[in-house]
Amino acid sequence: MLTDAFGRKVDYLRLSITDRCNLRCVYCMPPEGIPLKPASEILSYDELLRIARVAASLGVRKVRVTGGEPLVRGGLVDFIRDLARIPGIEDLAMTTNGIGLAELAAPLKTAGLRRVNVSLDTIRRDRFAEITRCDRLPEVLAGIEGAIRAELSPVKINVVLLHGLLPGEVDDFLSMARERQVTVRFIERMPIGCAPSEGYVSADGIRDRILSLPGARPAVGGRPAASLDYDIPGFAGRVGLISPVSRKFCSDCNRLRVTSVGHLRNCLFGRETLDLRRLMRNGGDDEVVAAMIRQAVASKTEGHDLCGSGSVPSAAEPMSRVGG
Ligand code: SAM
Ligand code: SF4
Question: Which terminus in the chain has less CB density within 10 A, N or C?
Fold first, then answer.
């Protein structure tokens, strides 16, 4: 088992499998996109599988595949099948923008993907086109329906709270959770990537709106989680809040991240990275890969300082390479 210096059990690995993306969300990328790394610098599927295998042998039980946009990488279904077969991995999830999911949801489910988070910040077509700089909302909505049909459940919808959010847009998502079996999670935008530091929207107002609904109450059960979920009578789904800025959840952090170029990171906001790719390509065996993973866990800090000093630590790498 991997336990850090503060007694936190680390059993969750996030793998960013590409820095490519078919959207250009304003808080994540500039309009022209980020400078892409040559394909040779992106971890191969074999390298990713090796990291996952070693991590699982050390006690990692949950793996999330992210990006960039994971669905744009060729060979994804076979990769997921290989990941799902690794002994010890009990939970395999993906974070995606949903484009292409309508077609891929069923094959991914068959391959062993358990569940999916779809990022969607508005269900109004003009606003979607503004936020993502692409007019592709219908494909995302079809992807969500495909995921529900394929039972990639619970299907979670990640909604980043953006400056300019219209009052009715929160209710759009509440209606979605009322009618469909999805967990809508409102997420405070973090001051990294292309996110300007002004215009931060706290989740507090949304919490008040949720609690104004008859019978709404915090959901019980589960491990302490980043998301505070609410059960609302009459809703087919759930609603949750993730507040990395106003309510940091470092004390429950169980995560390690591998970026698409093979940097191992023990905190989204940390500056420290360990170069797993170089280690592996220089012939390092599984023992040294394991040692680097242990080192990353041992050097996890107690918490980030997003809400302490109010200063904004800049991530050394873009979100689309780190994977959120
Ligand atoms: N392309 C996929 C997607 O959008 O779901 C996966 C990669 S994306 C970097 C992962 C998550 O990070 C998305 O849910 C996205 O909304 C979120 N994200 C990106 N920049 C963010 C920021 N500044 N604050 C909060 N969330 C952010
Ligand atoms: Fe692409 Fe996801 Fe970044 Fe949006 S948040 S630009 S979908 S990587």
Answer: N
Tell me whether strands 155-161 and 182-188 are parallel, antiparallel or unpaired: parallel
Domain range list for the chain:
12-322
Query: What are the 10-residue block averages of pLDDT along the chain, 324 residues in total?
Result: 95 97 93 91 98 98 97 98 98 98 98 98 96 97 98 96 84 96 92 65 87 92 75 95 82 94 91 92 98 96 64 61 83
Which ligand is the nearest neighbour of the Cα of 96? 1
CATH number of the 12-322 domain: 3.20.20.70
- Cα(44)–Cα(258) distance, integer angstroms: 13
Give me ligand 2 centre to Cα 146, in Å: 20
Q: CA 144 → CA 79, 119, 214, 228, distances in Å?
A: 22, 10, 27, 22
First and final C-alpha spacing in the chain: 24
Q: At what angle do helices 45-58 and 286-298 cross, to 10 degrees?
A: 60
Is the minimum distance from the CB of 16 to ligand 1 under 6 angstroms?
no
The pair of three-digit structure tokens given for residue 41, joined into one six-digit string: 């610098």
Cβ partners under 8 Å of residue 245, min gap 6: 188, 189, 190, 191, 200, 202, 306, 307
- Whether the CB of 320 sits within 6 Å of ligand 2: yes
160 lines ligand 1 (CB under 6 A): yes
